[in-house]
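Input.
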Amino acid sequence: MIRASLLLAIITLGACTLQPQPLPSGSWQAYQSRVSQLNDWTLAGKLGFRAPDSGGSATLNWMQRQNNYRLRLSGPFGAGSAQIDGNSQLAEMRYDDKIYRQTPEQLAEQLTGVPLPVSALSWWARGVPSPSQPLATALATSPDGYASGFDQAGWQLSFSHFKQTDAGHLPGKITGTHTSSEGRSYSFKLLISSWSFLEEE
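Output.
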């Protein structure tokens, strides 16, 4: 009888320890869990970029629908504007009355001169590492649970100017710097003026 009672107590204790515990409010884990579920959104802002031989800035409107996106950039390109539609594998760019089809990264580099990891940028805009890239390192968080910076995919990133949106706090400024294996330096700065989200049905 004693052994049975002891066994029951051990099983009960084990079951209690296996139950998932709620994430504390204001923690990095809670923030990352929340914003990783934001899959349908639109942001408006300004993208600045600098390469060793070029640089510029563009007004940006980014619409993300699950894994598909549409980027509209206007301002610095002489011909006026460019539109990129795609997903993580393939993208199509309409620019200067021509259509280009390459990987998202190839098109972004063709347009700006900077090897921007477009698929990762959709996660970085929300202030979290991309799950499709190598694990982030050098993670620094604020007392509110936001990431103030981390390194991923060869980029050193910083996040600031967090603002309240309909989906909670999100960064308003993201900066990134990257040095290639040839020693060439690249950077970008994304200033987000507004976020909007599709209402859940």
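Residues 2-18 form the longest helix (17 residues).
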